[in-house]
Design goal:
Distance between the termini: 33 Å
Helix content: 10-25%
Structural class: alpha/beta
Number of helices: 9
Length: 470
């Protein structure tokens, strides 16, 4: 037995793209319904506790939960309906729009909508997709899975690990695991150049002396019940293993950061054309797919470097989906131009450094003049010059982590320091954070440690998971 629901715009996916699309469609006058398969909105940002989000949109360095919850707040203020823990089982185009069959705890429902926004995100490549030989022991994780374990479940997935792939999530997890006491033996990249952004190479690897090995890959895993080691092999210019270069490393986990693939099962079910380059739907400039009335946004459209661009794509898709539902949309034949990805890190000269204050990741050249003054070039904004000067005299960094809680449904709470702290005090501050156990309901922005170790920085909560009215 099914019940039927109707709306103007149906948004599938409750991450940053889906939230932005829903808000934009609502503000354009549409009746919006959002469906999300997880129990909370926010998508992957719930577990991305590191900072660097929102620098383009909000001109602030926010953590993932902080960025997501700003949109969740706006979503809630508008009274938009969200069906959580709801799964799409079928979707088809009809004469009047679209008919989507979903399943939740209450049963099966049919939703009819005049237009749709697909904001289903992306998924990680697995060990099978990179053809690693050997047994199938526990301890082989994608970077996102490891991130989920440590940042949402409060469980350390490894004590000594190897990371395969220099994608940004892998780099970020190298730092996160190191901060929590794990030993990261190295990051191994099959290509001759790193995949991650220059600023992440700097703040996630170089800051912690984690080695990066280019033109290397994992060719075999060892272990029965649990991973006991991996075989590392150099590769040639064609990325083929070079015989005789094999090396065995003892470890208990292999973390994979080997690429993302847009989730497009629903798009394909609707007959949407897929772009061979982006692996997302082929869209016009309004983000309408080849199927009229179906719009795509976020990482299901293409994998973006910055979440700010994800939100931009959601707003555009939501606005146009609302216009389509109202009958005021005029289809464009002009193709969408994919947003270019930022350039990966390259080699640096001894007098060069990467600025990490904003997404541009400028490569700075720093020279000391005969009179002792410092000349900085390569910066595209004044912050770059100040960063370089500080880096030479008193380098500072931010810390994003989690604290334990007394609430079983939320074992850890994401936190960060309110301002940058001296780089040499990172692990001392981490020790203070590790001592905290939250036993009271707190909200985003609440101070958990004031002026930690006299640094002038407070340790603050970055999520409303434990808000008083939760």
């Amino acid at each position: 037995m099914t019940d039927k629901r109707t709306c103007d715009v149906l948004v599938i996916g409750g991450g940053p793209a889906g939230l932005a699309a829903s808000i934009a469609a609502h503000d354009a006058g549409a009746n919006v319904l959002l469906i999300e398969r997880e129990q909370r909105l926010g998508g992957i940002l719930k577990q991305c506790i590191h900072d660097g989000f929102g620098l383009v949109r909000f001109k602030e360095k926010l953590s993932g939960p902080e960025y997501a919850e700003r949109f969740i707040d706006e979503f809630g203020k508008r009274g938009i309906t969200a069906l959580l823990q709801t799964f799409v089982t079928d979707v088809k185009k009809t004469a009047d729009g679209f008919e989507t069959v979903v399943v939740d705890r209450e049963g099966v429902h049919t939703i009819t909508a005049k237009s749709m926004v697909l904001a289903t995100g992306c998924r990680e490549r697995t060990a099978k997709q990179v053809s690693i030989h050997g047994t199938r022991p526990a301890g082989v994780f994608t970077a996102g899975t490891a991130q989920n374990f440590i940042n949402l479940c409060g469980q350390m997935p490894t004590k000594k690990c190897v990371i395969l792939g220099s994608g940004d999530i892998g780099l970020i997890m190298a730092r996160r695991l190191t901060l929590e006491g794990a030993e990261v033996l190295g990051v191994y990249e099959v290509k001759p150049t790193p995949s991650g952004l220059a600023r992440n190479i700097q703040q996630c690897l170089r800051d912690f002396d984690i080695p990066l090995y280019l033109s290397h890959t994992v060719t075999r895993v060892f272990g029965e019940d649990r991973l006991t080691g991996v075989e590392i092999t150099q590769v040639d210019e064609h990325m083929k293993p070079v015989p005789g270069t094999e090396q065995y490393l003892d470890c208990d986990a292999l973390i994979l950061s080997v690429g993302l693939i847009p989730e497009n099962e629903i798009s394909e079910k609707l007959g949407v054309e897929i772009d061979a380059t982006t692996r997302g739907p082929r869209c016009n400039k309004d983000q309408e797919t080849s199927v009229p009335g179906v719009f795509s946004c976020g990482n299901s459209l293409q994998v973006f470097d910055l979440v700010d661009y994800v939100s931009d794509s959601g707003e555009l898709a939501g606005t146009n989906a609302a216009a389509y539902a109202k009958g005021t949309y005029t289809r464009s034949d002009k193709a969408r131009v994919p947003v270019p990805l930022e350039e990966p890190a390259g080699d640096m000269a001894p007098n060069q450094m990467v600025c990490i204050t904003c997404p541009q990741g400028c490569l700075l050249t720093v020279d000391r003049e005969e009179d002792g003054s410092i000349t900085v070039t390569g910066n595209r904004c004044p912050r770059g010059e100040q960063f370089a000067i500080n880096e030479l005299s008193a380098p500072k960094r931010t810390i994003c982590s989690t604290v334990r809680t007394a609430f079983p449904e939320t074992p850890v709470l994401p936190v960060r320091v309110s301002t940058d702290i001296p780089k040499e005090k990172i692990f001392d501050v981490m020790n203070e954070i590790d001592k905290v156990c939250v036993t009271m309901r707190v909200s985003r922005g609440d101070v958990l440690i004031r002026d930690v170790l006299g640094t002038g920085a407070d340790v603050i909560a970055t999520s409303d998971l434990l808000q008083p009215d939760a």
